[in-house]
Amino acid sequence: MSEQHIIRFENVTKSYDQDTTVLENVSFEIERGKFYTLLGPSGCGKTTVLRLIAGFMEPSEGNIYFNGKLINKIPANKRQVNTVFQDYALFPHLNVFENVAFGLRIKKWKKQVIEEKVKEALRFVNLEGYEKREISEMSGGQRQRVAIARAIVNEPEIILLDEPLSALDLKLRTEMQYELRELQRRLGITFIFVTHDQEEALAMSDEIFVLNKGRIEQSGTPTDIYDEPINRFVADFIGESNIVPGTMKKDFVVHFGSKTFDCVDGGFNENEAVEVVIRPEDLEITSLEAGKLKVKVDSQLFRGVHYEICGYDEDGNEWLVHSTKKATVGTEIGLYFEPEAIHVMRLGETEEEFDKRLEAYEGAANEK
């Protein structure tokens, strides 16, 4: 394992009985000093991954390595990992200082060292001067900062965050996204963040693992995941998408919506059935003559910064459009899009197969 990889999962499965497998044959690596997000719907296995890293449970099969060392049997209190829970798990009878100092007192650090470390941790989370404040007197955002200070004061190599923003209102949640990202950059340690909120994942992460039914569907940077979804699940879960059936006529040419279009994807078989993805913001409302597709408007909602327009093409495919232009329900409009806006997905393709196809295609293109 490379020195830069701090965590490695090797064919890890977690089952509770013969009928309940929550994580199935999962392998991945976590690099040191990055912000990772485990993203997926409820029950997909993301919190299980977090608990396996923390040492709160052991894998049923496979191995987990920390800095190259097998840690399957290493208890939680022996790992250089701290967890920030969804409810923060603060002690209501202790003030801010004592909450942050709790772990250090358990380890029997000297009083002066504890005071210095707690004050430093509170400065990191912008709570300097709050040492004597009672937890009951803190806002939701402040409580979260206390929980993070308690995590970082022990100087862990990894901080695990289990949906810590879910209880906050929208404005505070957005503010805390920026604060958490900036804190991770200042600390320079690995953050592994669990959420089911795709906007949160896209905004905060260096890399995202998209989980579904105990498996990793796709991993990559936010841009990779958003622009190049591997399959329908990822395309549909990460943002809003128009997904329609199509046929790959040849490299760079795809047919859908009763028409044939130039695109930028290759490596498919001739006349292969595919799925085509176009994001709503990549569709431009234009005249019927200038449009590449003709759509009859079925509904329209104002979303503040744009109109959300829904319509259907001649084949009955539904199209969602985000536009600053208004449309009229019941009328036909033209939709224009660039070839780069079209993303073609092979049916049933895994991430590994996708990577191999892309590598083979790019290799053949370079040879030519």
UniProtKB/TrEMBL annotation:
- Residues forming the ABC transporter domain are 7-238
Give the matching InterPro entries: AAA+_ATPase (IPR003593), ABC_SmlMolc_Importer (IPR050093), ABC_transporter-like_ATP-bd (IPR003439), ABC_transporter-like_CS (IPR017871), Mo/tungstate-bd_C_term_dom (IPR008995), P-loop_NTPase (IPR027417), PotA-like (IPR005893), PotA_ATP-bd (IPR017879)
Catalytic reaction annotation: ATP + H2O + polyamine-[polyamine-binding protein]Side 1 = ADP + phosphate + polyamineSide 2 + [polyamine-binding protein]Side 1
Q: How does it assemble?
A: The complex is composed of two ATP-binding proteins (PotA), two transmembrane proteins (PotB and PotC) and a solute-binding protein (PotD).
The entry's protein name is Spermidine/putrescine import ATP-binding protein PotA
Per UniProt, the keywords (alphabetical) are: ATP-binding, Cell membrane, Membrane, Nucleotide-binding, Translocase, Transport
Give a GO cellular-component term. Answer: ATP-binding cassette (ABC) transporter complex
Write out the function statement from the record: Part of the ABC transporter complex PotABCD involved in spermidine/putrescine import. Responsible for energy coupling to the transport system.
**From the Swiss-Prot or TrEMBL record, what is one GO molecular function term?**
ABC-type putrescine transporter activity
Pfam hit, one: ABC_tran
Main EC class of this protein?
translocase
Q: What is its EC number?
A: 7.6.2.11
Gene3D superfamilies in alphabetical order: 2.40.50.100, P-loop containing nucleotide triphosphate hydrolases
Stated family: Belongs to the ABC transporter superfamily. Spermidine/putrescine importer (TC 3.A.1.11.1) family.
Coiled-coil zones: none
Q: Which SMART domains match?
A: AAA
Q: Does the keyword Membrane apply?
A: yes
Which gene is this protein's source?
Answer: potA
